[in-house]
Design a protein that fits this description.
mainly alpha; 2 domains; Cytochrome P450; two-stranded antiparallel ribbon
Length: 255
């Protein structure tokens, strides 16, 4: 029996492994005995061919720096091949390779300078205090829905110039956008996600862009719309998916 054979039937994406949180013991074993592991299928997605998992930091670093062999732009950034059109992934800078990735990332960073974040610090403190004050007198709360979600939504939205009354709408949008495989968030499945949700979000994002083209402000969307590097700006598609990426990162990843 080969050293890797005990792991041949392991599918890292099997949600049963994650019921009680990340399967740390499994990953410890994989790092020690099978650091480059092949999962032959993806539960719930019979048309997918499977995926490789790297579990050692040095391997991850090597792969992440070798964009010629392990291209985000050619192969996508997801373990699935048939869910979301790869053209959409290529419109986000996380789905691009250098030098295009570096150019667009530089444009985005214009909105996140140290000075800009420092200027925003009093507002961030105010947001956190306001959310915590709502819990005064309560004996219990849900840490995600009552604390982290409203804080991270208002913080990123305040950077982007989104009014507070739209926080819940965009948080719900991003729940569906980032959780496309969750039947509770996307009961219509992949078809609804691709044909209804994403076009709706693109339309909503374009509605945020147009007024800022005519009348720029100091919010992050205006910065993205008007930022230039060597005379180049983001095109409309790059700006739209960049805005959706910011919404997703702020509402989901940060939380």
């Amino acid at each position: 029996m080969s050293e890797n054979e005990p792991f041949d039937d392991v599918t890292v994406a099997d949600m049963a492994l994650w019921v009680d949180g990340p399967p740390h013991e499994l990953f410890t074993e994989l790092r020690a005995k099978c650091p480059v592991h092949w999962s032959a299928d993806i539960p719930g997605l019979p048309n997918e061919e499977g995926f490789w998992s790297l579990t050692r930091a040095e391997d991850l670093e090597k792969v992440s720096r070798d964009c010629k062999t392990f291209s985000s732009e050619r192969f996508g950034i997801d373990i699935t091949n048939h869910v979301v059109p790869i053209e959409w992934a290529r419109s986000e800078f996380i789905g691009m390779d250098p030098p295009k990735h570096d150019r667009i990332k530089a444009l985005f960073l214009e909105g996140f300078t140290e000075a800009r974040i420092s200027e925003h610090e009093p507002r961030i403190r105010e947001i956190v205090t306001t959310v915590l004050d709502r819990l005064d007198g309560r004996e219990a709360c849900d840490l995600v829905t009552d604390v982290s979600q409203p804080i991270v939504a208002r913080v990123i939205h305040s950077f982007m110039g989104i009014p507070e009354e739209d926080d819940a709408k965009w948080a719900a949008y991003m729940g569906r956008y980032m959780g496309r495989d969750d039947p509770e968030l996307n009961p219509g499945g992949v078809d609804s996600y691709v044909n209804e949700l994403v076009p709706l979000l693109m339309q909503e994002a374009m509605a945020l862009i147009e007024p800022r083209r005519a009348e720029p402000s100091d919010d992050l969307i205006s910065v993205l719309v008007h930022a230039e590097i060597n005379g180049e700006r983001l095109d409309l598609e790059e700006t739209v998916f960049g805005i959706l990426l910011l919404f997703g990162a702020g509402n989901d990843s940060t939380m």
